[in-house]
Amino acid sequence: MRVLAFLDGTFADPDQAHIRVDDLGLIRGDGIFETILVTNGVPRELDAHLDRFARSAAKLDMAEPDRAAWERVIQQVIEAWPPEEELALKIVLTRGVEGDPEEKPTAFAYGMSIPESTKRARRDGIAVVTLNRGFEADLMERAPWLLLGAKTLSYSVNMSAQREARRRGAEDVIFTSTEGYVLEGPTSNVVLARGKTLYTPPPTNGILPGTTQGDVFRAAERAGWKTEVTQLKADELTEGDALMLASSVRKLTRVHTLDGTALPDSSVAIHAELAEAYDAQYA
Ligand code: PLP
């Protein structure tokens, strides 16, 4: 099932074409997006998503998104969806049509069912490989024009990395910097459990500050865990008690194998405890 609505509140048929071939989002990947998980009619971490959307727009020198209008259209899509069914809700804002003197952005919200592969990953965990992203962990500050830390529509490299993972017999990727620091996944943040502490790398590494990682950390703290945002070396990833990837639609996913090495079974119980603490907030 799918539901499409433009920012002005007009619903449209998702099986019909609506985007012009000269839209800069299409021909240059010049725009931004967010993907929000909706369960029991509630969009998870909506404020954090809309805050990040606004920060991404600012990094791309786009006008500030009209927050009230986005909140309205998100609610419209949710209300058009069966309340008991989960959905992934994507909001997309592009720089609009090339050469348009009015520079009118293209803006829509799009609800989709959760794919079976996502449900399987949530349940069974995934195999992951580490891949070099090819830059140093401090590049974001030195080169803001690279838009590191913005959630842009230019995801070809991220999708290419996931294909490389599949070629290597895995399902997903953890990117590392040239110095060997842990960065993020192509669509997720890294969470490492060691003892009773959860670790994740800092957004200053040029990675997206994750809404799910933030939410998981808050839920874990309430359940008695400590949390730390800190640099991690790639070789530390196999030394913890559980390695997980956090992202809105796949939620907290257990990594059962890293670079071909099976990770300890202790991760099953730790992942179950954290996933439950996270989900309990939305029950
Ligand atoms: N990092 C990247 C590059 C992403 O694309 C995403 C989400 O798609 C994340 C991290 C995780 O962010 P969130 O938990 O807000 O979905």
Automatic annotation (TrEMBL):
It comes from the Bacteria. SUPFAM superfamilies: D-aminoacid aminotransferase-like PLP-dependent enzymes. GO terms for biological process: carboxylic acid biosynthetic process. One of its GO terms (molecular function) is lyase activity. Gene3D superfamilies: 3.30.470.10, D-amino Acid Aminotransferase, subunit A, domain 2. Signal peptide: none annotated. The keyword Lyase applies. Belongs to the class-IV pyridoxal-phosphate-dependent aminotransferase family. GO terms for cellular component: cytosol. Keywords: Lyase. NCBIfam families: PRK07849.1-1, PRK07849.1-2, PRK07849.1-3. Pfam families: Aminotran_4. The lineage of its organism: Bacteria, Bacillati, Actinomycetota, Actinomycetes, Pseudonocardiales. It comes from Prauserella rugosa. This is 4-amino-4-deoxychorismate lyase. InterPro entries: Aminotrans_IV (IPR001544), Aminotransferase-like (IPR036038), BCAT-like_C (IPR043132), BCAT-like_N (IPR043131), Class-IV_PLP-Dep_Aminotrnsfr (IPR050571).
